[in-house]
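REQUEST FORM: STRUCTURE PREDICTION
Request ID: SP-0412
Submitted by: Lab K.M.
Chain count: 1
Length (residues): 503
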Amino acid sequence: MADRITRRKLLGAAGVGAAGVAAGGLAWRGLGPAGSDARPAGPRNVVLIVIDSLRADHVGAYGNEVVHTPAIDQLAAESVLFSRVFPESMPTVPMRRTIMTGRRSFPFTGWVPWEGMATRPGWAPIMPAERTIVEDMRAAGFHTSYVSDNPFLTSADIFETFRTRLDRYVKVPGQRGERRPPETVPLEEVVNWLPEPMRDEAEIKGIQRYLANNGRGENAGQTAAARVFRAAARELDRMPSDRPFFMVVDSFDPHEPWVPPRRFVDMYGDPAYEGPEIATVDYRSSGYLTAAQIDRLQATYKASVTIMDLWLGHFLDRLRERGLDDDTAIALVSDHGVLVGERNWTGKGDYRLHPELIHVPLLIRDPDGRGAGTTSDYFANTIDLPPTLMSLGGATPATRYEGTDLSPLLDGVDAGEERSFTYGGYGNYCFAIDDRWKLISANDRRKAKLFDVAADPGETEDVIDDHPDVADELYERIVAEIGGRPPWYTEDKLDAPQRSLPA
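STATUS: Completed
RESULT:
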C-alpha cells in the first residue's frame, strides 16, 4: 500500500500552521464520556458535513491509495462507512432538498422552472410551507446553524425563506459575487487556466472573477474550501452553552472551478507539464482536450479533493480541541461525483449515471464509538439522513420522513427497512441497482442500458440485449416504488416561464 500522507505534511505544503485554539469545551454536556458502558439519555450535538462533487473512489477510506484524504480517513476510522450509497436525486439542489425535507425529490413530479435555478427537472426551492429538519431540531431544543458557500442555497433569493428558519445562516462569499475586483487578475494569467477551446468571453470573465475570489492558484488558505471550514470552525465558538446544536457545513469544493496551487497538482500530475491549467470543463465529450490535458484535469481534481480534505481537517481539529467530540455525532456525505475524462466525458450528465457520477461517500460517526471502523453494504441513501441525524441527536424523528433511521446499523442491528435494491434519478433519467444488476434508463424507457455489476463493477459492457427481462423488471420496480412512470420533461416544459416565490 502506498504511504498515506499525514495532515501535518499537508499543512506544511499549504504553508499554514496547525489550528491553535484556547483550551476548554462548552459548559453544556448532555452525556457522559465516550466509551461508557451505557449510552446516557439526553441530547447530543449533531454535525452534517455535505461535500459537493466528491467521488467515493477518490477517498482513501474507500480504497484509493493515491489521493490523500487523511481527515476523511480519520473520520472513517471513527465511523460506519457505507459502501453502497447512490443519492436518490441529483444534482446539487434536488439532493439538498431531500436531506433538508426528509422527503424524496425524485421523480420530480409536477416540476416547473424556478427563477434563479437551473432549468432542469428537480431544481426547485424548499417551499415556505415545507417543514424541514431545521424546524424539527429547533423544536427539539437544538440551536441550528448552516455554514456554506453553495451558490444556490447561499445566494439565490428563492432560498431566503429557508435561510431565515435557522438560528444562524453563515454565508461564505466567493462562489458568486466579488470578494476582490476581478481586474486584479491579469487576463494573460486568466487564459492560462483555460484550454483554448474554452477561451470565450464568458468563461474568461468567470474564471477571472473566481481567481480573484479564491487565491489565484497560489494560496491554499484562500480557496473556497478553506474559507468554508474556517468559518465553520469559528461557528463552533458561537454555540450556546446551555443546549445542544445542529450544524450543517456545506462545502461547494471540490466542484469546479478548480484553482489549486501547483504544488498540490504536482502531487498527482507531471511536474514538467507546461500546458494550460484546467480550471473548469464543458459538460460534453472530452474530445476538446488533449490526452495531456485530461491527465492534468484528473490531477487538478485530485488536488482539489486534497485541499478540501485539508481544511475539513481544520474544522474537525477545532471540534476535538473544544472537547466537543465526546458529545457530537457527525455525518459526512456527498451529493454526486464528476467525470474528468472517463467514459469520454467531462463534467456531469443525466444519462451518465455511472459510478464516477453517482457513487458517493457516506460516513456516520457516533461519539460513543458504535460501529467505529466498520463497513456496511446496506443500500443507504440521502433520504435516510434526517431520521438518522435526529435519532443520533437523541430526538424523535419526524413521522413524515420517508427515509430510514440508519442508527441501528451502528450496533450491528438490522435497519427498520430491508432494502434489496436502490434507485434514483437525475434530470430525465433514472437508475436502479440490486446486488447483481444495474439499469440506466430514460424516464420514458428509451436509451436503456443494463450492467451485470457483480461481474462488471466498472460498468463497461451493456448486456441489455442478453437480459431484456431483467431490465424490464428493474424499471417496473422503480415504477412500483414511486407509484407510476417517472415524468419526461420536453423542451417546451424546460423553457416554460419561470416561477418565483411571493414576496
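NOTES: The first strand starts at residue 45 and ends at 51.
Reviewed by: T.R.
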